[in-house]
Write a structure and sequence with these properties.
Largest sheet: 6 strands, mixed
Number of helices: 16
Radius of gyration: 23 Å
Distance between the termini: 57 Å
Mean pLDDT: 91
Helix content: 25-40%
Order of helices and strands: EEHEHEHEEEHHHHHHHEEHEEHHEEHHH
Number of strands: 13
Strand content: 5-15%
Length: 442
Amino acid sequence: MKRKAVNTKESPQVKRQKELLPSYCDIQPRKGSDGSITWPASSEAIENARVYLRECASSKAKTLIVPDKDADGLDAGVIIHRTLTALGAPASSIEVHLVEKGKSIHDDEEREAMGAKKAEYIIVLDQGSRPAPPVVDDPDVKSLIIDHHLSDEFPKKAQIVSACHYPPVATSALLTYEICKPLHPDIASSCGYLCVMGTHGDLGNTLKWDPPFPDMKEVFKTHTKKAINDAVSLLNAPRRTSKFDVISAWTALLTATSPTELLTNPRLLSARAEINEEVERQTHTAPKFSKDGKIAVFRIHSAAQVHPVIATRWAGHLKSSKLEIILVANSGYLPGMVNFSCRIARCARKRDPPVDIISSLKAVADLDTTDLVQRLGESFARGHKEASGGIIPEKEFEELMALMKVGEKADPAEEGEKKTKVKTVEKSPQKNTLSNYFGKKG
């Protein structure tokens, strides 16, 4: 009779439970004096925007839509387009202006280009906000800005609807949808999927549509989540290519009547394949860390806008007890400039107090005793507390890295912990540890 082999292995490891992160909509919304919820922006600003859109449509005057280049901005732009035409504006009276690569609506060249189109109404969507001159110089032009990026300052003489101080902060597409939905009975059916696409584009495809976000069950009955999320990926691809082909994405979205139609668009498919290849080539760059271990810095050189994608990827995988922010810097996107994107590391999303990327970046810049803060300019630390970045000259970027003490060894008492824990990576699609992953060649 055979003796059973003695099991010398330790007890099976208990399966690790999936980390539960708070739902985006868990945060308490603002309430008015009567206890009613104020969301997604101030009631007065929303109603004023509706008055503006009715007036714009009824005037049948030339109108310029200026959406941002990503899925959120483009979806918001198409929602506006469909709302105006539903209200009686001729499609021929509506034109789009897409900002050039590396530019903003506040640059002189862009203001001149918008002014040259001689529109009487200009609607700016998801472009981010900062103190600036009027959208165009013509004092008779009426401008509406719909946005959700953190800012208390805006271009002069513009009508503003901002969601940034009304948690849970709506995306620009969601804010636009909420503004437009009551204006015409067809908006919910024709623009519901656009609202979801834009929102998933900014907040991710695992978002739970809990109150005060609207009930979108009818959208998900009509369009599968897979189709919606695949369409978002395709829509974002052209603007990430070195060609910066935003017009292809806008045209495809404007002419489609469902997300499914976007899934077979040849230009969108080729752009996504190009970006996937570039992300894979660039994503193996090894990080360096700030001396305090809070910021992981990846440096790449690419003509494509892949730095936000890589930042998002590593935010989900890189872990340490001190890590807070993933920063991916791209020195190849614009000549002489560094475009960088920051994301909160997944392991830091439940920290108390919460990680605030904008405040963290500004705190580093404030360590300088000269004029660095002024030289960093208005394109530094823009966006959201959870997803920020900037466009700054190479020299100033190197000064910022020096202030972070990137690459400097931690103090001896902390170094052991950093070396041990920072190499832990959650399960990722590549199935690699950091040590062999960064050794791969693109």
